[in-house]
Write a structure and sequence with these properties.
9 helices, alpha/beta, six-stranded mixed sheet, 37% helix
Length: 244
């Protein structure tokens, strides 16, 4: 059987004046895959993600998301993706329920769907008692899990996670990854950026960017074999040294 690809890019490039932020990147992400997108600050990760989400028009190259062209079919792309930023995108001055209902409405769910999804989400997160609390009163880890659950409330086929575990403790990060695995088991494609090298080990495959270019792409095990490294951190350090 031929592989089903959720994301396909070919020589995708973005320039800002004379600066090339993303330089002819080419890769495919399989449906249901957890794909790690790594790189230091300024490597081009966020620019690439914004192009794939339809928020930034490429300078050149090609890409499809869930089979839709990112140039010509941006609205279809946006309907089929979820997005979670490092800031979690939650409104601190709204309650938990109000945040869920607000975003569910933006994603186009009907009133009945919003009611059902709100109850389901609160039950799943064991936050029924906190539904009426302001988001600002929640612990960071709870905000993180709530934000992820809202990002997939409309059952997208692909979810983009931009540094989703920044600032939380290792136990909470592990619990968050349980949510990611659960979504992947349902067939959701996960495209995640992270600067935690231990989290790179949780991905099916990893792309490492340096100065806008993809310098390595494979499974964690194969990358460690290729670079004769004991950990993904060692792989990353070797690529960083090669740059300098």
């Amino acid at each position: 059987m031929s592989k089903q690809y959720a994301i396909v890019t070919k020589a995708l490039t973005k320039r800002f004046g004379h600066f090339t932020a993303t330089d002819a990147i080419t890769f495919e992400v399989e449906q249901g895959e957890i794909f790690g997108f790594l790189g230091a600050n300024g490597a081009g990760k966020t620019t690439a993600m914004r192009m794939l989400c339809g928020l930034l028009t490429p300078t050149s190259g090609e890409a499809t998301i869930a089979g839709y062209d990112i140039y010509k079919q941006t609205e279809q792309v946006k309907k089929r993706i979820g997005y979670m930023s490092q800031k979690f995108s939650l409104y601190e001055d709204l309650t938990v329920k109000e945040n869920i209902r607000f975003y569910a409405g933006i994603y186009g769910l009907s009133n009945q769907q919003i009611k059902e999804k709100t109850a389901e989400l609160l039950r799943k997160l064991q936050m029924e008692k906190e539904g009426g609390q302001l988001v600002s009163s929640l612990p960071l880890g709870w905000k993180q899990k709530l934000s992820f659950s809202i990002a997939v409330i409309h059952d997208p086929s692909i979810v983009f996670l931009d540094e989703p575990t920044g600032g939380v403790d290792p136990i909470t990060r592990r619990q968050f990854w349980d949510l990611i695995y659960e979504a992947a088991d349902r067939g959701v494609t996960i495209f995640v950026t992270t600067h935690y090298m231990d989290e790179a080990e949780y991905c099916n495959r990893i792309s490492i960017m340096v100065d806008g270019k993809i310098k390595a792409l494979d499974t964690p095990r194969k990358l460690k074999e290729q670079f004769n490294a004991d950990s993904m951190n060692d792989v990353f350090l070797q690529l960083a040294r090669a740059k300098s």
